[in-house]
Amino acid sequence: MKRKQLGLTFGGLLFFLILLGFFGYTAARLLPVYLDYWAVKKALVDMANDPQLEGGSLSAYRDAFAKRLYVSNITDVERKDLEMERVKDGVVLRAAWTVRKPFIGPVNLCLDFKIDSEVPRR
User: Fold this and answer.
1) H helix runs in 8-107, sequence order
2) DSSP-derived 3-state class of residue 93
3) If exposure means fewest CB atoms within 10 Å of the residue's CB, which of 37, 62, 89, 116 is most exposed?
4) Distance (Å, rounded) from C-alpha 64 to C-alpha 79?
5) What is the pTM of this model?
6) CB 43 within 8 A of CB 53
7) What is the per-residue pLDDT across 40-68, written as a single tens digit (0 to 9) for each?
């Protein structure tokens, strides 16, 4: 009685490696962008908890934001991307920006980010 062979063919292995390479390349292109996103999010949370900025003007918040971006070496976000809205309970800080990264040939990855952080009145 003959047994059917089990295993991976060369074509199957090649397909799996190409698929693995594609997802690895995609992750390598997106990871730095998301690391910047998390750094901006942390900067906004730190600004919300900073007692020196309490009741400050928009320019004071933008200066503090620009300093945090400079220290984190973030170039995709600028100080003008920070918006401030005064509400009855304090201040809402918003940062919104778009990142375009080349991907493969004429294909670009376009990512839109928006972060809100509330500064409560103390």
Assistant:
1) 10-48, 58-72
2) strand
3) 89
4) 9
5) 0.81
6) no
7) 999 998 888 888 877 777 888 889 999 99
Three-state DSSP class for 105? coil
Exposed, middle or buried: residue 89 (CB in 10 Å: 0-12, 13-18, 19+)?
A: exposed
Give one word for 87, left, alpha or beta, with left for phi > 0 and alpha for psi -120 to 50: beta
Residues linked to residue 111 through DSSP beta bridges, in sequence order: 99
Residues 6+ apart with CB under 8 A from 63: 79
Nearest-angstrom CA–CA distance, 55 and 86: 10
CB 119 within 8 A of CB 54: yes
The DSSP call for residue 106 is: T
Q: For residue 23, which of 115, 105, 103 has the smallest C-alpha distance?
A: 103
